[in-house]
Write a structure and sequence with these properties.
The complex is a heterodimer of chains A (434) and B (450).
Chain A lengths: L13 E4 L5 E6 L5 E8 L13 H8 L11 H7 L4 E6 L4 E8 L3 H13 L7 H20 L6 H9 L14 H6 L2 H11 L5 E7 L3 H12 L24 E7 L5 E8 L5 H14 L5 H9 L10 E3 L7 E8 L6 H18 L3 H20 L1 H15 L8 H6 L3 H11 L5 E8 H4 L1
Parallel strand pairs in A: 2-6, 7-11
Antiparallel strand pairs in A: 1-2, 3-5, 3-6, 4-5, 8-10, 8-11, 9-10
Helix pairs in contact in A: 1-4, 3-8, 9-12, 9-15, 10-11
Chain B lengths: L22 E5 L2 E7 L5 E8 L13 H9 L2 E2 L2 E2 H9 L4 E6 L4 E8 L3 H13 L5 H19 L2 H13 L14 H5 L3 H10 L6 E7 L6 H9 L22 E5 L5 E10 L7 H12 L5 H9 L3 E11 L2 E11 L3 H18 L3 H13 L1 H4 L3 H13 L6 H11 L2 H11 L6 E6 L1 H4 L11 E4 L3
Parallel strand pairs in B: 2-8, 9-13, 9-14
Antiparallel strand pairs in B: 1-2, 3-7, 3-8, 4-5, 6-7, 10-12, 10-13, 11-12
The chains are: A alpha+beta (434), B alpha+beta (450).
């Protein structure tokens, strides 16, 4: 088949830097009177020191608690009162902060972001730290400790990477490390990572580029660069784990589940793109091999439109995940064996043209839908500028996903989807495992 | 030396804004509502039916969702796999979602493939395979879903609250997707009957949002409605309140490090005359980040990652519910604080600064809320489902901007009812049950029959 009719749009970008090193990317789009403001700081959980896991994410919370000219609670109050949607997220490689605002409130968003980029230090108090530490500990309880299967991501990261590797610990961090984080730790983290020369600011939407750049200069231009930025640690690791690591986890879960993690090439490489396409062939959408065999034909697992997918780590190696939630009455051994049969058959016998075409079509739709949204487009531009130094890569994202051939998929699949390269976590309902 | 601009900037001049223009016309016995959105190459298209789970007989709760599911499991001579492939090879993703008052069947699909997606949607509607073995599989999948969802403390709490607020044996006392028992009881005859008597073009419309420039919407509409006929009523749930007074229900989940709280009472149906005032109050109580519940429980006390409150307003009934997940050790104090915030709003009404923030937030968010195909699809669907006029959103924005403190305070006094609050706590009963006797919400009942 062809992809006639699905033309990837070309986004016109202005990509520049202030004297203090702040990289600024602007993409005008006047369809709707809104603008997405997105900042990536080149710091994530991989930058954390031993004994201080969770600090990057805890710090992200403190960015909402007031700065030089903004009271506690005011950041959210002011933005919500102009109709904005806003949030921030912390991941292994980075921390992003973003708000989409009606375009006549752009200046407010820039003022707030500049104030916390340059003026947080004196507002940080023990009281605020203690409050947000408690909030984050509750976030950990809510999302990990008190949720069925909530610990899987932490368990996979811990086992799939070598001891002390930057991706070996989760972004949420341990309760003990969160408890130990001091005001000095937090201030030091801010000083070493939150600086204009460690950030990318992207504006997408209803703005005039020149006027917007003048506003960025006005609000961010007076923030000095950091002279001793701390870069990312070395994430080099052997491409395969070298053994199959198996763990059984009895938990308060209703049905068994199997989570697998494979070490894989990092995001941003042609092999990662090939793996993305292979993931859709095997486990993406309702027409995938796994859906057909494990759901439609054999009813072994609960339906999923994403059985397989890779994390977007860039530091040396990444992690490909597969997860199978057993149907009632099915054992994890049955589900895993059936999964292995499907994957092994694909890698042994090859991938048909129409399977590849389906995967390409779904991925193209996915990327086009994603980039059509101003906020996800802004995030993608910040991402490519921060991680690869080039926001223009967003304009070739579809081409790169369409490039891998069926042979590429097999080559990368055979290198990654190996028994000696995976961690297998099996969750069992507590009463069954007792 | 850091130099920051101390003055908070003023707003610029807003661009005039109206809800995105859309067309509505009758084609081949059906209605097509279409909204062109610039630079949105992936179109959201759905057959939107006014019939949802509320219209189900309680004994066959889940039949609407099972019918929607089964329509996507093969149609027009294609089996389930072939049906999936037929859309996905064009980059189209199928969805089949049922709410209390509506059903949505359709695709997120690249513009160029909308005509083919329309033919697939038509075959699902008029020529579904309806195979008993497929139904058995889909039924098992839905039972597993219900069991898995109930294992999440927050969902479990909300379900238990509904079971306590609505009269036993009525539809709203059961989860929207039914229970394992009711779902197991739905057979092919029940699905066929639902499909033939309830899912009908007379109670539905085709809604499209996205880049429509190269599409002939008459042809698209004709393709979807071809060979499909019938009129149908939306149907309702005959809502009926539970009796027996307020109480505290602890659902025992031993070892829980948090307690999931659901605190609520029955509320108004959609379309109440004071709906704008009511939702304004709700935003200040438990909607915005700095709402009273979130500010006190999270930002002041650090008891939780978040706390919220909403009115779930359905066509013929509603629920007010405040929810939070709090550290086990502070369960009773968190409940006391939450009740105090609800009582404070009920008795004292909204503050001027809160009212100003909420009004501005709700007016200014319009261009954000209606920018994406899915956002516009949802808004246009509501016009269909709740029979609203075409100028509803622009008019509603004017009402939001004009709402006054007196109206909001009256809504708070009327629609927050302290003496009707029922509390459900999903958590470690041995750690929390005793302390909940003192929170002033009635007798404590512990459920351990999980």
């Amino acid at each position: 088949m062809t992809l006639t009719g699905m033309r990837a749009p070309h986004f016109e970008l202005t990509d520049t830097r202030l004297a203090n090193g702040l990289r600024v990317v602007v993409n005008e789009d006047h369809a709707v009177p809104i603008v997405a403001v997105n900042i990536w700081y080149d710091v994530g959980s991989r930058h954390e020191e031993p004994g201080r896991t969770g600090l990057a994410h805890l710090f992200e919370h403190l960015m909402f608690e007031g700065s030089a000219h903004v009271e506690k609670g005011e950041h959210l109050k002011l933005l919500q009162a102009v109709g904005a949607t806003l949030n921030a997220t912390t991941w292994c490689d980075r921390t992003n902060y973003f708000e989409t605002v009606p375009s006549h409130h752009l200046e407010l968003a820039l003022w707030l972001e500049a104030d916390r980029m340059g003026g947080l230090a004196d507002s940080l108090s023990q009281e605020t730290l203690d409050n947000q530490r408690a909030v984050v500990q509750n976030e950990r309880r809510q999302s990990y400790d008190n949720q069925p299967y909530g610990g899987w991501i932490e368990q996979l990261q811990q086992s799939a990477f070598p001891a002390g590797h930057p991706y070996q610990h989760s972004t949420i961090g341990s309760m003990d490390d969160l408890e130990a984080a001091s005001l000095d730790d937090v201030k030091d983290f801010y000083r070493r990572h939150y600086a204009p020369n460690n950030a990318v600011l992207t504006l997408v939407g209803d703005v005039d580029t020149d006027a917007a750049l003048a506003l960025v200069e006005k609000y961010f231009g007076g923030i000095p660069a950091c002279a001793d930025l701390v870069g990312a640690p070395d994430g080099t690791a052997p491409p395969v784990i070298g053994e199959e690591i198996r763990k059984v986890i009895p938990d308060n879960v209703p049905l068994p589940a199997v989570f697998m993690g494979y070490r894989c090439p990092p995001f941003g490489t042609p092999d990662f793109d090939a793996l993305s396409v292979l993931s859709v062939v095997l486990g993406g959408g309702r027409g995938s091999r796994l859906y057909r065999e494990l759901v439609l034909e054999r009813a072994l697992v609960r339906p999923s439109e994403e059985f397989v997918g890779a994390f977007d780590f860039v530091g040396g190696v990444s992690l490909l995940i597969a997860d199978l939630h057993c149907a009632e009455g099915v054992t994890p051994e049955q589900a895993e064996a059936a999964y292995d049969e499907v994957v092994d058959a694909a890698l042994r016998d090859g991938i048909a043209d129409d399977e590849l075409a389906r995967a390409r079509a779904l991925l193209t739709s996915d990327v086009l839908g994603h980039l059509a949204s101003l906020d996800s487009r802004a995030d993608a531009l910040s991402q490519h500028a921060t991680l690869f130094g080039d926001p223009e890569l967003v304009n070739t994202r579809v081409d790169r996903l369409l490039a891998p051939t069926a042979d590429d998929l097999l080559r990368v699949g055979r290198a990654v989807l190996r028994r000696d390269n995976r961690v297998v976590l099996t969750y069992l309902p507590e009463e069954e495992s007792a | 030396m850091t130099v920051l601009v101390p003055e908070r900037p003023a707003a610029g001049e807003p661009r005039p804004y109206r809800f995105p223009a859309f067309t509505r016309h009758d084609v081949a016995g059906g209605t097509v509502i279409a909204c062109h959105l610039e630079r949105r190459p992936i179109v959201s298209m759905a057959l939107v039916s006014r019939v949802g789970a509320a219209a189900e007989d309680p004994g066959s709760a889940g039949v609407a969702q099972l019918t929607a599911d089964l329509l996507g499991q093969g149609a027009g001579g294609l089996d389930a796999h072939a049906f999936a492939i037929a859309g996905e090879r064009l980059g189209a993703s199928w969805f089949a979602a049922v709410g209390w008052d509506s059903s949505h069947l359709g695709f997120d699909v690249p513009s160029f493939a909308v005509p083919e997606a329309a033919r697939l949607l038509n075959s699902a509607l008029v020529a579904p395979a309806m195979i008993a073995e497929e139904l058995a599989r889909v039924r098992d999948e839905r039972v597993d879903d219900l069991v898995a969802e109930a294992a999440r403390p927050r969902v479990r709490a909300a379900r238990e609250l509904a079971a306590r607020l609505w009269a036993e044996g009525t539809r709203y006392a059961l989860p929207q997707g039914g229970t394992p028992d009711t779902v197991e009881g739905v057979d092919l005859d029940a699905v066929r009957a639902w499909h033939e008597s309830r899912l009908l073009p007379g109670a539905a419309a085709l809604v499209l949002a996205g880049d429509l420039t190269e599409l002939d919407l008459d042809l698209v509409g004709a393709a979807v409605f071809d060979g499909w006929a019938g009129t149908g009523e939306a149907g309702g749930a005959s809502p009926q309140a539970a009796t027996g007074g307020r109480r505290v229900v602890v659902v025992d989940r031993p070892g829980s490090v948090q307690s999931a709280l659901a605190l609520g009472h029955l509320g108004p149906a959609r379309g109440a005359p004071d709906e704008v005032a009511l939702t304004t109050m709700q935003a200040a109580l438990g909607g915005l980040f700095n709402s009273r519940l979130n500010y006190t429980l999270r930002e002041k006390k650090g008891y939780t990652y978040g706390a919220s409150a909403q009115y779930d307003m359905r066509r013929d009934g509603g629920v007010f519910v405040a929810q939070s997940e709090v550290k086990t050790e502070v369960t009773a104090p968190a409940v006391v604080d939450a009740v105090a915030e609800i009582a404070g709003m009920q008795a004292g009404g909204i503050r001027d600064d809160e009212l100003d923030d909420v009004r501005r937030q709700r007016v200014e968010r319009y261009p954000l809320a209606f920018a994406s195909p899915r956002g516009v699809l949802g808004a246009l669907s509501d016009l269909v489902v709740h029979d609203l006029p075409d100028d509803y959103y622009d008019r509603q924005r004017e009402r939001i901007a004009a709402v006054g403190k007196d109206e909001v305070d009256s809504a708070a006094a009327k629609h927050l009812r302290l003496d009707e609050l029922t509390l459900v706590v999903v958590g470690d009963a041995s750690a929390v049950a005793d302390s909940l006797g003192d929170v002033g919400l009635g007798p404590v009942e512990v459920r351990t029959d999980e």
